[in-house]
Amino acid sequence: MTPESFLNFRSAICGKRILITGGTGTVGQALIRALLPLDPMVIRVYSRDEQKQYYMRDEYRDERRMRFFIGDVRDYGRLRRAMEDVDMVFHLAGLKHVESCEYNPFEAIKTNINGTQNVIDAALAEGVGSVVFASSDKAVNPSNAMGASKLMAEKLMVAADYSKGSKSTRFASVRFGNVLGSSGSVIPTFVKRIRAGKDLPITHPDMTRFVISFRECIELLLTAATESVGGEIFIRKMPVVRIPDLAEALIQLYAGKNAPVETKVVGVRAGEKLYEELVTEEESTRTVDTGRYLIILPTDEADRADEPLFPGATPLPVGAYTSRLEAAISVPQIKRLLTEAQDPIASAGDEGEFDTGVRLDEETSPEMIDYSHRFDSAGAAAK
Question: Can 383 be counted among the known catalytic residues?
Answer without folding.
Answer: no
